[in-house]
């Protein structure tokens, strides 16, 4: 597959990597080529010890309008095995990303674009950003695990509301129901998101963040005793890890911590 070099822009802000979906003329609609480049950049960021947090946003006035309808209209005529072979990584690849992944939802986000935003750990947005599942209005179903993920974020009936109606939710309502984690003015979205990401990168243990992401994900399908057993095991290991001593010493010495970078996946 020929890959355009500018479908996803990559920009370093210290230990924070900013990735920008870059098809503004199509509201950053999702294509296999864009997916391939985005996931390749996530792979590279995962193995780069200098990158501790990733922020993803959209160029222009939208985050991602979902699957490109021109691509979507051709899917019915293409063999599914051919599509699967063209996809080098599973579409849920961001869920396995060990470092914090934060979406700065700057505008419309729909369908597959919403799924990708929900795959991120946190979503910062603006009051006028538009969220919609959209699938039902395209004759589709709840795709790519959103039927599993959405109820865990917003609750059973709210998830069904969003899926069955395909209605548009603005930023304030998205925050109230749990689709978004913070709403800020449009001109402050990237500065606020990057500042939050920089705080994680500078003051939080990469190892601890990776382990806690894994704990939370596993706990979604386990019981409390299982979660406690795992936490006790990981806590014992953490006490013996250099990051634990560094966290205590940096606090007592009133200085920024110097935590070890996360090793390659």
Automatic annotation (TrEMBL):
InterPro entries: ClpP/crotonase-like_dom_sf, Enoyl-CoA_hydra/iso. It comes from the Bacteria. PANTHER family: EG:BACN32G11.4 PROTEIN, ENOYL-COA HYDRATASE. This is Enoyl-CoA hydratase-related protein. It comes from Catenulispora subtropica.
